[in-house]
Specification:
Number of helices: 11
Number of strands: 9
Oligomer: single chain
CATH superfamily of the largest domain: Bira Bifunctional Protein, Domain 2
Number of domains: 2
Bound molecules: phenylalanine
Low-confidence stretches: none
Distance between the termini: 72 Å
Radius of gyration: 40 Å
Strand order of the largest sheet: 1-4-5-9-8-7-6
Structural class: alpha+beta
Shape: elongated
Helix content: 25-40%
Largest sheet: 7 strands, mixed
């Protein structure tokens, strides 16, 4: 140990502190010891501050002596601190009773999104009826989305308001799944029975409209297909979906690609057709559009309408999910709020 004639108390201070460190039996006491000598107002810190008052030639030796004590104390504090920590941990593990019976911390588990869930259900029903699943591109051309489906050039559905156009001006985001009819009919020979589930896009947004939503298209092309086949297929479908008691009704409508066309209603699934807020007291809910495939569409797809006929329908998946779960704002389905989605787990 360095000689320090100017501070005879340094060595006793060191020894006293080292003894206290050894004697400390918990981390709090140890921390108090550290503060008392190495803290801002600690005894060693004070001595280092006083160094400037010594004559210049005495400073190096005195400084070295203080630092040596400081190092020794820091080392002892660290070593004692570590062994106290170990001892405290060991005590907690063996000493404290450890209750293994309380429920564990919850682990947040995911669940299928209501739209995905309903989509699966729809696909299951139609595949069990013999429909094959096919998909088409979401970025389409005017030709597939409109022209081949018998939309006249000036049809309002081609307006910029409804359709999202890709910047090149040639392509667009499909506004419905009906272009998959065209892809399938150009690719394969009838007879065919296909469903085409997927995302569609419309420039539209409020409580019942989202700019992106899902449809399931269904179509069948065969010899001597009648509206009766369409009606029977849809009836079977809604009864599988909502129960045996469910009824449908067809109202005359118009789509460029079907003739005749119909809007299809189901008896209200919420009030059992008695009349409620959701069905606006009518007892009926509109859930899909349908019709017999227009001969112009068959001809455009190189299928002879004198030999072949077909029906087609398109339904909105969100609408069906909203009815199934009593959801009154479509946007809830896209906000991904875990408090909302958690209800479907
Ligand atoms: N494509 C139509 C729509 O999006 C629905 C439809 C499909 C109607 C097939 C008739 C036949 O509104």
């Amino acid at each position: 140990m360095t000689d320090q004639p100017h501070d005879p108390e340094l060595v006793p201070l060191r020894d006293k502190t080292l003894a206290a460190i050894t004697a400390a039996t918990d981390s709090d006491t140890l921390e108090q010891i550290r503060v008392s000598c190495l803290g801002k107002k600690g005894s060693l810190t004070g001595r280092l501050k006083e160094l400037g008052k010594l004559p210049a030639e005495a400073r190096p030796a005195a400084g070295a002596a203080i630092n040596e004590v400081k190092d020794a104390l820091e080392e002892a504090l660290a070593a004692r601190g570590e062994s106290l920590k170990q001892a405290e941990l060991a005590l907690r593990l063996t000493g404290e009773p450890f209750d293994i019976t309380p429920p564990g911390r919850g682990f947040p588990a995911g669940a299928p999104h209501p739209v995905a869930d309903v989509m699966e259900e729809l696909i299951d029903i139609f595949t069990s009826l013999g429909f094959a699943v096919e998909e088409g591109p979401e970025v389409e051309t005017d030709r597939y989305n409109f022209q081949m489906l018998n939309f006249p050039d000036d049809h309002p559905a081609r307006d910029m308001q409804d359709t999202f156009y890709v910047q090149d001006g040639r392509r667009l985001l499909r506004t419905h799944t009906s272009p998959v009819q065209v892809h399938a009919m150009l690719k394969r020979k009838p007879p065919l029975a296909v469903i085409a589930p997927g995302r569609v896009y419309r420039c539209d947004s409020d409580v019942t409209h989202s700019p992106v939503f899902h449809q399931v298209e269904g179509f069948l092309v065969d010899r001597r297909v009648t509206m009766g086949h369409l009606k029977a297929t849809l009836e079977l479908f809604v009864q599988r979906l909502y129960g045996r008691q469910t009824k449908i009704r067809l109202r005359p409508s118009f789509f460029p690609f079907t003739e005749p066309s119909a809007e299809v209603d189901v008896s209200c699934v919420l009030c059992g057709a008695k009349g409620c807020r959701v069905c606006k007291q009518t007892g009926w809910l509109e859930i899909l559009g349908a019709g017999m495939i227009d001969p112009n569409v068959l001809t455009a797809c190189e299928i002879d309408p004198e030999v072949w006929g077909g029906f087609a329908f398109g339904l909105g998946v969100e609408r069906i999910a909203m009815l199934k779960y009593g959801i009154d704002d479509i946007r809830l389905l896209y906000e991904n709020d875990p408090r909302f989605l958690g209800q479907f787990a």
